[in-house]
Specification:
Trp Operon Repressor, Chain A, about 35% helix, about 250 residues, alpha/beta, 3-stranded mixed β-sheet
């Protein structure tokens, strides 16, 4: 996968792309990062990328020209026509694990990170394929949001994680929140690991994990069940769990 990022602050991405899973992914040739300052594409001698909004109002608005020209430069060498051009925007689609899994199937992602009051609407209407928000709040720019999305996408790429099955049971990948985890020692200051996890019975362990995922989802994010299709067995377990809290 190739990931391009258009930003006015490219230095923000050095620490993120240079450590942990994102760095390992690049070392494994699973991903290539390219961070570009779109101010370099401004067509005026002062390299300005923003201007006052028509009709008046507070703040400055990003001009279309630098963004359009930067995107054209980054995509003209691509043979594929399916580049996903993603605008980080508080008005965009709420980001979730399903969106991350969708984007992880692409070959080329291009993120546009803005600042100031907003974007010229022609960027949104004629250039962007996806508008994404990481939550119902406003940040000073799109950089932090882009980092969040990129991190969640890159870890899903083949061979990036040490265990290929790691992400398959993550919270939200199954539709439910993930079950609890335990490691050694089995007894830590009187706090013990559930006996079933020490039993060696893989069928019972898997059943326990599913039940605990159901329990955690019920207690913390019951809204997730609205979009979930449970098996008859899971439905039975969920009803039994609900009785514990009646």
């Amino acid at each position: 996968m190739k990931i391009d990022v258009l930003t006015l602050f490219p230095e923000m991405f050095g620490g993120v792309f240079g450590h942990s899973i994102l760095k390992k992914a690049e070392e494994k040739n699973a991903v290539e990062y390219n961070v570009v300052n779109f101010r370099d594409y401004a067509d005026n001698k002062h390299n300005t990328v923003d201007d006052y909004p028509y009709g008046g109002g507070a703040g400055m608005v990003l001009k279309p020209q630098p963004i359009f020209d930067a995107v054209a430069s980054l995509t003209e060498a691509s043979s594929e026509s399916g580049t996903r051009i993603i605008l980080m925007c508080p008005q965009g689609e709420r980001f979730n694990q399903q969106k991350a899994e969708e984007l992880a199937k692409e070959d080329h992602l291009l993120f546009v990170c803005g600042h100031y009051e907003g974007y010229d609407e022609r960027i949104r209407e004629h250039l962007i394929t996806d508008e994404i928000s990481i939550g119902d709040y406003v940040l000073t720019g799109g950089e932090l949001g882009a980092m969040v999305v990129i991190d969640s996408v890159v870890r899903l790429l083949p061979k990036v994680l040490g265990n290929e099955e790691s992400h398959m049971k993550d919270s939200f990948s199954t539709g439910m929140l993930e079950h609890p985890h335990y490691t050694r020692p089995a007894d830590f200051r009187g706090m013990k690991v559930p006996d079933v996890l020490l039993s060696g019975n893989h069928k019972l362990i898997e059943e326990w994990r599913v039940k605990e995922s159901l329990r955690r989802t019920l207690l913390r994010r019951p809204d997730l069940f609205e979009k979930m299709v449970l098996t008859p067995e899971q439905t039975k377990w969920l009803e039994e769990i609900k009785k514990d809290y009646e």
